[in-house]
Specification:
8-stranded mixed beta sheet; 4-stranded antiparallel beta sheet; 29 strands; 16 helices; alpha+beta; single chain
Length: 641
């Protein structure tokens, strides 16, 4: 989602050149029986006015994704190994066993290759595990192959080539082809932000005063002598400086449980990779008296091709540092594998996720990136889900930040949803404002979402919605069975998020890493961050404690999480609207690094998340709630470990 400068955000923008589908078949294919790949056309093309036909020689590169060898059996096994009470619950496969039972075989690949070649496409390669066949050709060849018409459209200020109806393949391939992506050339990039070059991010230094814990200091006067007026007749506290490792470790149960994540491996996926990690993390831990990463505890797994698309993707080194710090703060002994995508494009991030399941070294996978659901096709979604399903039968769980744009209305002008966070086969992590006292104990939590009021001529001027956890009811899926009896809202669709953790930037976390200053110099410094980019890796650390307590993998977590909610588990704090009258005052440097250009002051309200609201029970900001110190033991008890 989008970054709320200068702090953090998480998911945002879109996803890579996947997806599309088509219209009018050529006469040769129109007469034969075909299987429609429903939803393979971009949704916005329906009813849109095409400006013309794609040039016949317009270059197209597609991925044709293949179904599992026995798709129905795979789907049934996912349910069986993930559902408490099933005879197969947590009887996981190895990646080799998955490949032997379910991976597409050579005959499936050959049938797709033969058809592509016979239709005028060039077969370029076959993906790892036979997941897909990549092929290229002209727009005319693509039209012929997929019974489509590629047309030109004006969309979001760009000329886009896209098919105008869903693609199709011969009926004989209906049990083989899962979906097709790449028929359109709309920009499809995942992001935490979408500008700049790979490399260290622009420096942001938190201004003081700020509080070491919630409510420590009351804001009455700024460091430049500016009088800070009351907000709604009450003088508000200064925002937090950013919680430190010991505070977060206590809040999420480390000292109370004696757990540290030993024996558990957490994967992080993102694009590119910092050249100063893990040295930056160890610098930060050393400065704050927290255990450093041991040799071999953090490992980078590079992509199989060079990094590319730098202008579209921008730097991700701050996000990388946030993810490492968040996992390590909660589970300091857990191993971390960082899977670097070659870019932020959908294809490259899908390849990174596929490597996670094929290697099967990590049981928990945290992902602080994503896009907008309406920009995805079913080809995108099904390709992702095959990876999540493989992970599920292998005992791997995928966590995704729920987004930082609330219901998306303030950004897009209409309601939308976050993807992959809204996929029913992942655990979507929403956000909270976390009030910790001087001892590090949780006083209360509220849903993360805020309006921003800027101090202007002595008065607070409301500038509107500033950001908040993503959530809602994603229409691409029916309500998953594991949500029945917990999500009581009558709205249809996959309800998300599932759980929540700290995300508010004004009660955020402290992170240290290499940053670029205006004079061009780079050096290590600390910043304060928030967003659900923080929440997902924090919850990953919590899951590491739970797996250590359990003595094994949890697997796809949603069924057991919702069973705990139905049973009234004490492992979660139910986040309600009880604290929505709270607010904090934040001081920022105008130039983001020092006081030379002066200060700007703002009020950040609490529990104001666009049209989304916290409430008792499941809600569309925090899901079933936020884990507390009881959580690891509660999970083990629910599973029977």
């Amino acid at each position: 989602m989008k970054r709320f400068k200068p702090y953090l955000t998480t998911l945002s923008v879109v996803a890579m050149a996947l997806g599309g589908a088509g219209l009018a078949a050529s006469p040769a294919h129109a007469a034969s029986a075909r299987t429609t790949l429903r939803g393979s056309a971009l949704s916005w093309t329906k009813g849109a006015h095409a400006t013309g036909l794609a040039a016949a020689n317009h270059a197209v590169t597609v991925r044709v994704y293949l179904k599992a060898r026995n798709q129905a059996a795979l789907d049934a096994e996912v349910d069986a190994v993930s559902t408490p009470g099933s005879a197969q619950y947590r009887h996981f496969l190895t990646s080799a066993q998955y490949a032997a039972q379910y991976a597409p075989d050579a005959a499936q690949v050959a049938s797709v290759e033969q058809y592509l070649r016979s239709s005028g496409m060039h077969v370029d390669s076959v993906g790892a595990g036979n997941r897909y066949v990549t092929a290229s050709g002209s727009a005319a060849a693509a039209d012929h192959t997929f019974a489509t018409t590629l047309r030109t459209y004006q969309h979001a200020g760009q000329t886009v080539v896209a098919p105008d109806i869903d693609a199709s393949v011969p009926a004989a391939l209906g049990d083989t082809v899962l979906g097709v992506t790449g028929l359109d050339n709309a920009p499809h990039y995942n992001a935490t932000k979408v500008q700049g070059q790979p490399g260290p991010p622009t420096a942001f230094v938190p201004a003081t005063p700020c509080s070491q814990f919630y409510g420590q200091l009351t804001a009455t006067q700024g460091p430049d002598g500016t009088k800070i007026p009351a907000y709604l007749k009450t003088q508000r506290p200064w925002a937090n400086c950013g919680y430190l490792p010991q505070q977060l470790n206590q809040a999420y149960g480390g000292p109370a449980t004696g757990l540290d994540g030993s024996g558990v491996t957490v994967a992080i996926t993102l694009w590119y990779s910092s050249q100063t990690q893990p040295a930056d993390e160890n610098h930060f831990d050393r400065d704050h008296g927290f255990p450093q990463l041991a040799p071999g505890q953090y490992t980078v797994v590079p992509p199989d091709k060079p990094y590319h698309f730098p202008n579209a993707c921008g730097s991700a080194e701050d996000e990388q540092s946030i993810d490492i710090t968040s996992v390590h703060n909660v589970a300091p002994a857990a191993n971390i594998l960082y899977y670097a995508g070659a870019s932020c494009g959908n294809n490259d991030m899908l390849d990174a996720l596929a490597k996670v399941v094929d290697e099967d070294k990590a049981s928990i996978v945290t992902n602080s990136w994503g896009g907008i659901l309406s920009t995805e096709t079913t080809g995108d979604e099904l390709a992702n889900e095959q990876i999540y399903k493989q992970g599920a039968v292998q005992g791997q769980q995928f966590l995704f930040s729920s987004g930082d744009n609330g219901d998306w209305v303030s950004t897009l002008g209409h309601t939308d949803f976050d993807y992959p966070a809204s996929d029913p086969y992942v655990t979507s992590v929403g956000g909270t404002t976390l009030n910790l006292d001087f001892s590090g104990s949780t006083v209360w939590q509220a849903g993360w979402g805020y309006n921003k009021l800027v101090l202007t001529k002595g008065k607070w001027v409301n500038t509107g919605f500033g950001g908040g956890a993503g959530g809602g009811f994603a229409p691409d899926w029916a309500r998953p069975g594991y949500q029945h009896g917990v999500v009581r809202n009558p709205a249809s669709g996959r309800a998300y998020p599932d759980v929540a953790a700290l995300a508010d930037t004004v009660t955020g976390i402290r992170v240290g890493f290499n940053q670029v200053y205006p004079n061009g110099q780079q050096h290590y410094s600390e910043s304060r961050y928030g967003g659900t980019s923080v929440a997902s890796p924090l919850f990953a650390g919590e899951q590491a404690l739970a797996e250590q307590q359990l003595g094994g993998r949890i697997g796809f977590a949603n069924p057991v999480l919702y069973s705990m909610a139905r049973a009234g588990s004490n492992g979660f704090d139910d986040v309600t609207g009880a604290h929505d009258s709270e607010a904090l005052v934040r001081a920022d440097f105008v130039n983001s690094i020092n006081a030379k250009a002066g200060y700007v002051y703002s009020v950040r309200t609490i529990d104001d998340d666009s049209s989304l609201h916290t409430s008792a029970g499941w809600d569309d900001v925090t899901g079933i709630g936020a884990p507390n110190a009881n959580y690891p033991g509660a999970v083990a008890a629910a599973i029977g470990g």
